[in-house]
Design goal:
- By secondary structure, the protein is of the alpha/beta class.
- It has helices at 30-37, 60-68, 81-84, 102-115, 127-132, 150-160, 184-197; strands spanning 50-54, 73-78, 120-124, 139-144, 164-172, 200-204, 208-212.
- It has a single domain (30-212), classed as Vaccinia Virus protein VP39 (Rossmann fold), CATH 3.40.50.
- It is built from seven helices and seven strands.
- The chain is globular and about 45 Å long.
- Bound molecules: S-adenosylmethionine (SAM).
């Protein structure tokens, strides 16, 4: 790293290292900033629970989940290469125009597994298939941020519900209220699901949703 210019104040201890937004790095990726802005979501869960993130990508929010939600067990579930192959599709800057490799993003999730031994478990799998293999009533919380189409979100929510403990929390990203948004399917599915199952729905800043399952 280049030496700081004379007179430059030292960064605070936990500062994210400077990242040039023009460079394509994990630190400069927009998910890095988005993950930081969602730290408050830990207020919806008690520490020491069993949690899962469905849709992990480069493990930006997974990092926050591990450090701030302080789970006893955290499953990080994403198909990575099973779905995308060696490199991601061209989603513009999000995937460096198709040059980002699934090896690199998976590596970051594996790094979390090493940093939190016995707590973080990486599962290269689709959400539905992973959940089907888990016992009923297992999770205190699940954070859903996978496929954003209505049918896929609905299928994931249906797969998650029986796996939740009573009093558990299902949360997720990209609950956009604009019906013309690219991800409008998330809100439509979450709203319909909440009504169908009589769940308490909270809409939070940063387009977060929270579905609270009543304690039995
Ligand atoms: C928006 S990214 C996740 C970002 C991540 N949650 C974060 O905040 O840092 C969506 C991810 O969902 C994954 N995905 C797509 N379909 C999925 C499925 N059926 N099950 C699990 N993950 C899936 C994609 O591979 C991609 O990595």
């Amino acid at each position: 790293m280049a030496a700081a210019a004379p007179g430059t104040p030292a960064p605070p201890p936990n500062a994210v290292p400077f990242a040039d937004p023009a460079e394509f790095t994990r630190a400069s990726h927009r998910e890095a900033w988005h993950a930081e802005t969602r730290r408050f979501m830990c207020n919806y869960v008690a520490p020491g629970g069993i949690g899962a993130e469905i849709g992990v990508f480069w493990a930006h929010f997974a990092d926050v989940l591990a450090s701030e939600f302080r789970p006893a067990r955290l499953y990080l579930v994403d198909p990575w290469h099973k779905l995308h192959g060696e490199t991601y599709p061209n989603w513009g800057r999000y995937t460096n125009f198709g040059q980002l490799t699934t090896r690199e993003t998976l590596l970051q999730a594996r790094t979390l597994e090493q940093r939190y031994p016995g707590i973080v478990k990486v599962k290269v799998d689709y959400g539905e298939s992973f959940l089907a293999g888990m016992p009923d009533g297992h999770f205190d919380w699940v954070y859903l941020d996978a496929h954003h189409a209505y049918d896929m979100v609905m299928a994931d929510l249906k797969a998650i519900l029986p796996k939740m403990k009573s009093g558990g929390v299902i949360m997720g990203d990209d609950y956009f209220t604009d019906p013309d948004s690219q991800h409008a399917g998330v809100k439509r599915a979450v709203d319909a699901f909440a009504i169908e199952h009589g769940l308490d729905l909270v809409f939070e800043k940063r387009n977060q949703f929270i579905l609270r399952l009543g304690a039995v």
